């Protein structure tokens, strides 16, 4: 009778632990530390009560500004504004600075190509909220958008006067993980794999918006001294994409390219030509394909 | 448990744990939350993760608790949500929907037991570990769950070959 149920299985297949989202999840999970054991702190309180003393518990006192060699934080109205002075400093320095103003904000360094070193690859916001706000598609809390952006907007991380500014609402009860690019070591995979076609990327200038034959893209990549790998695109019923290693024919179609690590790119291909690019569904602004 | 061993557990169990979550969550976002929260708990309690094949059963038990306390998380990772959405099967045809509705109308405990057999493919011993009950208890509860499911199916016009066999002869 349970055979009847087998045909109703809501899951088509299991997740791939090597997929980018799964890898990001593993990295996020393993970057969190175990909660502090409370017992140690409880005991003196119990002793004090037993001795008949009146114990007043004061809430932890936080300062409203803090600076160390890595970061400088101050309160501006309803939000804390942190200027990152040294993005490659020991990330504990950041944790310590944010903790001093009562925030759980951590910097998680990820290996990236030189294009993204010193920039944020996005934030992971943890915790449960009764009313998470959204302002302009960004996560907000108490009317303040959480952000980690280069200022002045679009500046080069190494340029003088250019710094990453982190904004977090004062009293934010959740946790924030900022995924910050650090230069990859030789042979390390890039976390900013989607920058291959953009300015400065290994395949900048190659146009894939309307697809291009494998033969042409491979020739161009090899001309630039790159090693080429391939994955076939599988399109799920909901439009979700997954990727499997494959060896394509010359006439297959390339729809996107990623930078895997230094000197290595991956072409995302389909055997048949599709009516439109699966990575681009008319969204604005269009991706750099 | 070293970080390397934890990573190995993640690799070995991710496929089965994502399926477990997808089967029990209506939306990919909820499934992503359950998977993320389950591994977060596992990382915190990594010293308690059993070695070998029992690791996945231990994770199922954690996921079950996570599901029972689940509130939509504020954290959103669009990549993980999209990967999760891709794991969902298409909605089955009408002829299957009666069975589906009947199944969903069963008491929670029955549904979970039958799902562990039909979808996770667990045997009695493994279910006992996952649910933290005795093997004999699994046998009795599963028999009752099967009987209730068969009755409900019959009431909805779907005959099954399930007969009220004595307990000793059921799987």
From TrEMBL, chain A:
<protein>
    <submittedName>
        <fullName>Uncharacterized protein</fullName>
    </submittedName>
</protein>
Automatic annotation (TrEMBL), chain B:
<comment type="similarity">
    <text>Belongs to the sigma-70 factor family. ECF subfamily.</text>
</comment>
<keyword id="KW-0804">Transcription</keyword>
<dbReference type="GO" id="GO:0016987">
    <property type="term" value="F:sigma factor activity"/>
</dbReference>
<dbReference type="InterPro" id="IPR039425">
    <property type="entry name" value="RNA_pol_sigma-70-like"/>
</dbReference>
<dbReference type="InterPro" id="IPR013249">
    <property type="entry name" value="RNA_pol_sigma70_r4_t2"/>
</dbReference>
<dbReference type="InterPro" id="IPR013324">
    <property type="entry name" value="RNA_pol_sigma_r3/r4-like"/>
</dbReference>
<dbReference type="InterPro" id="IPR036388">
    <property type="entry name" value="WH-like_DNA-bd_sf"/>
</dbReference>
<dbReference type="GO" id="GO:0006352">
    <property type="term" value="P:DNA-templated transcription initiation"/>
</dbReference>
<dbReference type="GO" id="GO:0003677">
    <property type="term" value="F:DNA binding"/>
</dbReference>
<dbReference type="InterPro" id="IPR014284">
    <property type="entry name" value="RNA_pol_sigma-70_dom"/>
</dbReference>
<keyword id="KW-0805">Transcription regulation</keyword>
<feature type="domain" description="RNA polymerase sigma factor 70 region 4 type 2">
    <location>
        <begin position="101"/>
        <end position="148"/>
    </location>
</feature>
<dbReference type="Pfam" id="PF08281">
    <property type="entry name" value="Sigma70_r4_2"/>
</dbReference>
<feature type="domain" description="RNA polymerase sigma-70 region 2">
    <location>
        <begin position="10"/>
        <end position="76"/>
    </location>
</feature>
<protein>
    <submittedName>
        <fullName>Sigma-70 family RNA polymerase sigma factor</fullName>
    </submittedName>
</protein>
<dbReference type="Pfam" id="PF04542">
    <property type="entry name" value="Sigma70_r2"/>
</dbReference>
<keyword id="KW-0731">Sigma factor</keyword>
<dbReference type="InterPro" id="IPR007627">
    <property type="entry name" value="RNA_pol_sigma70_r2"/>
</dbReference>
<dbReference type="InterPro" id="IPR013325">
    <property type="entry name" value="RNA_pol_sigma_r2"/>
</dbReference>
């Amino acid at each position: 009778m349970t055979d009847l149920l087998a045909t109703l299985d809501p899951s088509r297949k299991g997740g791939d632990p090597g997929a980018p989202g799964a890898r990001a999840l593993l990295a996020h999970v393993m970057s969190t530390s175990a909660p502090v054991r409370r017992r140690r702190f409880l005991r003196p309180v119990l002793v004090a009560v037993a001795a008949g003393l009146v114990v007043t518990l004061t809430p932890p006192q936080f300062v409203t500004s803090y600076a160390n060699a890595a970061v400088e934080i101050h309160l501006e109205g309803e939000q804390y504004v942190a200027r990152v002075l040294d993005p490659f400093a020991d990330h504990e320095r950041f944790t310590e600075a944010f903790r001093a103003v009562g925030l759980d904000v951590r910097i998680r360094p990820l290996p990236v190509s030189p294009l993204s070193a010193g920039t944020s690859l996005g934030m992971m916001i943890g915790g449960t909220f009764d009313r998470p706000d959204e302002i302009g598609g960004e996560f907000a809390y108490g009317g303040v958008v959480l952000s980690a952006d280069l200022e002045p907007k679009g500046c080069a991380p190494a340029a003088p006067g250019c710094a990453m500014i982190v904004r977090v609402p004062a009293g934010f009860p959740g946790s924030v993980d900022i995924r910050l690019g650090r230069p990859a070591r030789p042979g390390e995979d890039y976390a900013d794999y989607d920058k291959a076609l953009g300015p400065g990327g290994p395949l900048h200038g190659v146009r894939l918006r309307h697809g291009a034959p494998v033969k042409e893209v491979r020739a161009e990549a090899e001309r630039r001294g790159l090693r080429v790998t391939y994955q076939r695109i599988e399109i799920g019923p909901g439009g979700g994409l997954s990727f499997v290693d494959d060896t394509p024919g010359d006439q297959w179609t390339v729809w996107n390219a990623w930078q895997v690590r230094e000197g290595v790119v991956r072409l995302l291909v389909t055997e048949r030509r599709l009516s439109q690019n699966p990575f681009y569904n008319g969204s604005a602004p269009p991706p750099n394909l | 448990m070293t970080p390397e061993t934890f990573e190995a557990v993640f690799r070995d169990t991710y496929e089965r744990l994502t399926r477990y979550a997808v089967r029990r969550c209506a939306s990919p976002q909820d499934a992503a939350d359950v998977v993320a929260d389950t591994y977060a708990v596992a990382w915190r309690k990594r010293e308690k993760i059993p070695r070998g094949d029992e690791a996945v059963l231990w994770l199922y038990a954690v996921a079950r608790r996570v599901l029972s306390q689940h509130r939509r998380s504020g954290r959103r990772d669009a990549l993980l949500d999209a990967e999760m959405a891709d794991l969902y099967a298409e909605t089955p045809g009408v002829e299957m929907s009666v069975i589906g509705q009947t199944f969903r109308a069963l008491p929670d405990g029955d549904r979970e037991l039958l799902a562990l057999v039909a979808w996770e493919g667990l045997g009695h011993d493994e279910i006992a570990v996952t649910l933290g009950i005795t093997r004999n208890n699994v046998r009795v509860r599963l028999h009752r769950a099967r009987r209730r499911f068969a009755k409900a199916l019959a009431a909805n016009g779907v005959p099954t070959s399930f007969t009220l066999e004595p307990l000793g002869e059921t799987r």
